[in-house]
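Subject: for your reference before the review

Hello V.,

The reviewers asked for a structural picture of the protein, and I figured it would be easier to keep everything in one thread rather than splitting it across files. Below is the amino acid sequence we used in the manuscript, unchanged from the supplementary table.
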Amino acid sequence: MWRAVEWPGSEDLDLSADGTGVVADGLVVAAVEGQAVRMAYRIECDPDWRTRSVRIELHGEPPRRLTGDGNGTWFEDGRERADLAGCIDVDIALTPFTNTLPIHRLGLAAGESADLAIVYVQPVPRLDISRAEQRYTRTDTGYRYGSGTFRADLTVDADGLVTEYPGLWTMER
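And here is what came back from the structure prediction:
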């Protein structure tokens, strides 16, 4: 469970991983930029942490579902999303959990970096799905994350879950 720092809110996550894959079911309830948000998501990955499906439900809107082949091809409602070609990971803006996806998949050693094209989901003010460029650099205590001009030093636990996302989220123990 995480507590939001920048605005009132929290996230509850149920995460399971075994030899067949990874399933994350999350629920975020928050007040972001004056807007009440209740967002449920389900992310399914293969055993190598490559995202294969994402379902996002925002209260009051129809759910959205993306499916991927794990190699960078994505579909929504049976139609290929060519704008997302090459993306393996998904980043949902309102959850610290999705940073865990590339952290696990990449397995970077201290000092190593990786540049990624990711499926970026922005739920506020409306649900928008697009492509974004990100960079992860392994540090001694976690990861430096960057996208555009935004940078954050993420502290993670032994499972690769974000424990501190400065100014945005902190894990409740």
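For the response letter, the relevant points are probably these. Residues 2-171 form one domain. The CA atoms of residues 3 and 10 lie 4 Å apart.

Happy to draft the paragraph if you're swamped.

O.
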